Amino acid sequence: MRLFRLAKIVSVGLRFGLDRMILDADSSGRLARLWHVVFFWRTFAEPRGARLRRALESLGPIFVKFGQMLSTRRDLLPPDLADELALLQDRVPPFPTEQALALLEDFYGRPVDAVFNNFERTPVASASVAQVHFAELPDGTEVAVKVLRPGIERVIEHDLALLEVAAAVLEKLWPEGRRLKPREVVAEFSKYLHDELDLMREASNCSQLRRNFTDSKLLIVPEVYWDWCGGKVMVMERMYGVPISQTSALRAQGTDLAALSRAGVEIFFTQVFRDGFFHADMHPGNIFVHGDGRYIALDFGIMGTLDEVDKNYLAQNFLAFFKRDYKRVAMAHIEAGWVPPHTRVDEFESAIRTVCEPIFDRPLKEISFGKTLLRLFQTARRFEMEVQPQLVLLQKTLLNIEGLGRQLDPDLDLWKTAKPFLERWMDERMGWRALVRGVREEAPNWAGTLPQLPRLVHEALAGSTRHKAAQQDRLADMAAVQRRQGRMLAVVGLLAAGLLALEIHRLLG
Fold first, then answer.
1. Nearest 5 degrees, angle CA 300-CA 304-CA 306?
2. Could you tell me which of 45, 203, 251, 504 has the fewest CB atoms within 10 Å of its CB?
């Protein structure tokens, strides 16, 4: 089955002429001319961007998601490719409505029109793993009904199997492959892709994020209607807003794009460092803007989590970067085991400074993050830095945030926007506010423990006394054993001396 899927990938690439995009990179042109001779019958009327988009749509959800991520990286792609890939965000071909109705009727056990007052047959959005229809609950509440694509699980399993094979080959054949941990990275993406296929899990993610941002002035999260949800169906509040990619419409409704870009950075850092729970699929198709200027989050299938150790480590690294304390950054990487312990701190510090110093105090429009990432990769290879699979989603989300910031406000200074938030967060974590909060959080536990304190102290002291007596008994037993062993050794020694005397007397006599 994997061979058939691989053959399909190759055939789709050839059918849409993706090989020509690769051959165009050959400056000599000799290989391209030879290739054209072999495939002389092929002609393409569509531009290369449209052909790339259609190829990704044909290959399925994993490839669509790859295209979605690339569409936010306009500094890495020519404009024609970036514009065409942006269509993947909300124009993935829908599956037939009849299949959606059949799935819903099977889940609810009755016709769709008996479940909802109104169910719009035409899908309003179609994504890589599901599509959305608007509907109305019996009490008149307007909702969005998300339905999983039929048979999507099998397609994803096939694609993941190919990725696993590719990762294993990469580790075997490429010297740098093992350090990059490709199999661990594929396993991490596999976990999140499988999570995305469970719409009950997505509904719980949505509910948690909504609770985290209750009464927020920056972010709106729809309410989930649990009585209508299942593993392949999710029903949530219908949201009204303008897609964040439609900047002209945002300006028309009076939205301040510069303030909106700064709010996006604050929302991201709040999710990461305050909650350790962040939206990890923040491409423009999943984000709308309300009329009052607040963000609207949609599609909660991929969420990232960080524990306290990760949050503290990341915050210290970010602050060290913002303060240009490259020695602290180098030491933090060594202490965390991201680079070998034998790494020379001064050399690593110098390499980090060389990569990062040029990007400070400059707007995004003047920074080539493609070149910066390439130089960081070269630095990583030089110092044997290991890829951290648990932070892959965070890295991906940071790229999305940068892409959104570039679209909204090319003059946004990501570093200056994030630095005050991180300094405030670190102060709350480690300053006097952290002490007050810790006392307040632990006070209920103290209230239950204080009445028991005298008894616990008595038991501890009594236990200490019993422990000391037991130790003394063990020491006495050991001393008795040693005395017995000493007496036995003395007897054995006397017997050996007597036998030796008799033997000498016999020899001399």
1. 150
2. 45
Tell me, yes or no, whether 486 and 371 share the same domain: no
Give the span between the Cα atoms of 273 and 308, in whole angstroms: 9
- Pair (301, 384) in one structural domain: yes
Is 130 assigned a ligand-binding role in the annotation?
yes
pLDDT digits (tens, 9 = 90+) for 27-69: 556 656 666 666 656 667 788 888 888 888 887 777 777 676 6
Same domain, 310 and 405: yes
Q: Is the dihedral of CA 355, 358, 359, 365 positive or negative?
A: negative
218 inside domain: no
Catalytic residue check, 106: no
User: Would the annotation count 146 as a binding residue?
Assistant: yes
**Closest by Cα among 306, 218, 298, 224 to 265:** 218
Q: What is the CA radius of gyration of the chain?
A: 33
Closest CA to 296 of 265, 267, 326: 267
416 found inside a domain: yes
Predicted TM-score (pTM) of the model is 0.69
> Of these residues, 75, 90, 159, 281, which one is catalytic?
281
* Chain center to CA of 361: 28
226 pLDDT more than 80:
yes
- Residues with Cβ < 8 Å from 286, sequence gap 6 or more? 89, 279, 297, 298, 299
Residue 126 annotated in ligand binding: yes
Q: On the CB side of 51, how many CA atoms lie within 13 Å of its CA?
A: 16
Whether 495 and 395 share a structural domain:
no
